[in-house]
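Example S7 (structure tokens).
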């Protein structure tokens, strides 16, 4: 989600008195504002953000609408094209050419994300009847609550200025309403006061510098990308990337629990969920302090088949570094088809894999290239018949890099030989969970933002059950439930404590030349002697 303060507008650089007394609230952009919009438009196109936006939500004031269409709209509108323009020429006396609605996301005007209401004429909007001819392709629907509530501006009054607590409450209603939308990546073009009062309520569970980063005042035409997290089950979106096969092969630890009479002396049982705290709220984090992880359990291995029959088989040397079964390779093919169809393969920056045969076969089968062709001047990801797989070689062309990492192995490559595994002792659940947390923290040393991790059921279960204690129990259960073979589950990892130091690739500092245009309320505090008699 990208929060964007509107571009530079006439009242922002004037005195508090003029913002209070200005009678024409339909104030147009100055030349500096157009430059701000053009600079930000160039930035979002260069960083690739425009290709990812599913929806643009905009406050229904002229300055925000002009900013939104200028940054995220199409190119100049050409007469004769059979689609309405986003903005007609010279809308709001802007002296700007018409903007096309081709090749851009849909635009939706939403009343709830308006600037602080009342007293200041610059924060009063036109009637929707006036807006529609100026911005024909924007949805000004009156049909649903939390969007435009009336053709005329019935929310603004000259007598009373909305207090900050009311703005913050309205902002939280707006963020909760976002969960009713199906879109995943949304640009929100709104106002400094609205953003400051709303965002100040977030980040209390983070390092103070992270909270400060979330809520600091936005400059004109500044863009800041955030990740909105539903900890309370408000939203009910189905994942477009998650994938779960029908078959559930139990990991060795669970299979042993299922047959306790056959368990060896070194085996341990799973611990249950504990310390579940329900905090029914939405929370927000800077997107550059988040990584998207796509967690995958390996496909069915021969050890799964034999261990389900008899857990003692897990101790058999015959199952050393077990490889995939024919059914496992079929599961790999199904998941490969899914990640291609949902577009996930195009977004992956890195594939991390546990250095066991079954995980590596799964990783290269799902996320690798096509069949390898001899004579191509790149090494294959996997040679033909690797691990007695009877599978053709797999190319490393047109796929992300692969990295084998020892720390994400199953219940128990620091050396050429496996010095971590012993025949005498099985790694305890607590040790496995601690290793998992070290692995998760290590991910913050990586620059990649979207990472696939192909690993094991036990490793995932014991690592993930440490997460979600600040969420609704159903969300915690969703995070920590067992993985089926070849299941994929997408998660967002959040850095609340400054472990990572990644810089944002989408954030944009705003006004050029540098400077922070004060919102009208801040300007009033700066010049109290100029406040008019009707201010509140």
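Recovered sequence:
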């Amino acid at each position: 989600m990208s929060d964007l303060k509107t571009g530079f507008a006439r009242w922002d650089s004037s005195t508090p008195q003029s913002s209070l007394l200005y009678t024409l609230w339909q104030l147009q952009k100055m030349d500096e504002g157009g430059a701000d919009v053009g600079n930000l438009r160039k930035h979002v196109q260069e960083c690739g953000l425009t290709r990812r936006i599913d929806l643009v939500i905009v406050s229904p004031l002229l300055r925000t609408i002009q900013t939104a269409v200028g940054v995220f709209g199409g190119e100049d509108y050409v007469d004769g094209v059979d689609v309405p323009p986003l903005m007609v020429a010279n809308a709001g006396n802007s002296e700007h050419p018409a903007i096309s609605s081709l090749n851009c996301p849909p635009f939706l005007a939403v009343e709830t994300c308006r600037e602080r209401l009342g007293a200041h004429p610059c924060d009063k909007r036109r009637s929707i009847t006036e807006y529609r001819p100026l911005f024909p392709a924007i949805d000004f629907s009156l049909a649903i609550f939390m969007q435009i509530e009336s053709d005329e501006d019935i929310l603004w009054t000259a007598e009373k200025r909305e207090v900050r607590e009311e703005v913050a409450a309205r902002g939280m209603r707006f963020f909760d309403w976002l969960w009713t939308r199906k879109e995943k990546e949304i640009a929100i073009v709104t106002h400094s006061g609205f953003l400051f009062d709303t965002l100040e309520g977030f980040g209390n569970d983070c390092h103070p510098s992270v909270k400060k980063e979330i809520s600091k005042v936005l400059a004109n035409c500044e863009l800041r990308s955030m990740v909105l997290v539903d900890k309370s089950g408000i939203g009910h979106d189905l994942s477009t990337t998650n994938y779960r096969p029908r078959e559930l092969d139990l990991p060795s630890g669970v299979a042993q629990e299922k047959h306790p009479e056959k368990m060896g002396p070194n085996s341990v049982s799973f611990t249950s969920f504990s310390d579940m705290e329900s905090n029914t709220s939405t929370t927000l984090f800077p997107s550059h302090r988040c990584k998207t992880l796509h967690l995958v359990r390996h496909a069915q291995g021969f050890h799964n088949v034999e261990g389900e029959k008899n857990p003692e088989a897990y101790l058999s040397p015959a199952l050393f570094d077990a490889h995939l079964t024919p059914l496992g390779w079929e599961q790999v093919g199904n998941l490969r088809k899914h990640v291609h169809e949902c577009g996930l393969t195009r977004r992956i920056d890195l594939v991390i894999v546990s250095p066991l045969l079954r995980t590596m076969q799964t990783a290269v089968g799902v996320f690798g290239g096509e069949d390898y062709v001899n004579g191509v001047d790149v090494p294959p990801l996997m040679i033909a018949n690797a691990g007695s797989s009877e599978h053709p070689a797999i190319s490393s062309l047109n796929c992300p890099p692969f990295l084998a990492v020892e720390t994400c192995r199953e219940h128990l490559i620091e050396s050429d030989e496996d010095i971590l595994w012993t025949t005498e002792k099985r790694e305890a659940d607590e040790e496995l969970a601690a290793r998992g947390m070290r692995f998760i923290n290590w991910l913050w040393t990586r620059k990649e933002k979207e990472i696939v991790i192909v690993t094991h059921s036990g490793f995932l279960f014991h690592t993930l059950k440490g997460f979600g204690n600040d969420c609704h129990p159903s969300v915690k259960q969703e995070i920590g439930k067992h993985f089926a073979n070849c299941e994929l589950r997408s998660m967002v990892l959040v850095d609340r404590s400054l472990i990572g130091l990644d810089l944002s690739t989408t954030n944009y500092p705003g006004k050029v030349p540098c400077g922070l245009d004060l919102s009208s309320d801040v300007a009033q505090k700066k010049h109290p002697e100029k406040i008019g008699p009707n201010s509140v």
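Notes on this example. Confidence is low (pLDDT under 50) at residues 6-32, 259-280, 531-536.
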